[in-house]
Amino acid sequence: LYEQAICDKITFKETKGRYLLQLGRLKEAESLYVELLKRNPENHEYYKQLEVAREANTSEEKLAIYVEYQEKFPRAQAPKRLPLNFLTGAELETRLSTYIRAALRKGVPPLFVDLRPLYLVPEKFQLIETLLTSFLDNQLKVSSFESSGSPQESPTSLLWTYYFLSQHYDYKSDYQGALDLVNTAIEHTPTLIELFTLKGKIYKHAGDPEEAVKWLDEAQSMDTADRYINCKAAKYMLRANKVAEAEAMCGKFTREGVPAMDNLNEM
After folding, report:
1. What average pLDDT does the structure give for the chain?
2. CB of 69 within 8 A of CB of 41?
3. Whole-prediction pTM
């Protein structure tokens, strides 16, 4: 009755879809979520609801949905990423390997954050370590992810492999291993700011806030216009009890002619 008066059509359809599922009207819900996925094939919740609508309970049935959407939207990440949550064994290894390689070739900084939920499963944690270690070894020997040496990879793939593995070792509290990898990455490409922020984070986790500040300050000096790095550096300084330095750092992005603390309090 009031559908024409509702301006937010997306929220309307999402709410309608949830109610249709609760009422057991699965075919109608399926049609609605198929329509929503055409608009946004990256929405994780739509895929989960489509699984319910299609009564996909086994891994094979769920995978069939994601394979269908990989073909429909080959550039979408969600249908490639979501199956990794429930797959196991050889199928998981194949798809995880393909997913990681594509991200390393493209140079995706948040890859580790993307895959971190998988670390809660010991089997997947070990598989990721095994895959990345083999990728690193093969690239160092034959410049390829494959031991056969084909296809050849660009030097940036090696850089992002170092970056990911450094975060991996930091996660498992092997701080020396993480530092060795990030230092090697910095020697490889000394202009990548993410490497310096990562090095600071590793020192923070290792319990050395003074050294952490040093590397965040270095990262901030490489891009003084980056407000995010500026805020991170100030936060690390406060953690190391360098209040005056943190205030000076914040002052780079506060209103001129007004003390940084006064301006921050206003905000």
Report:
1. 90
2. yes
3. 0.88
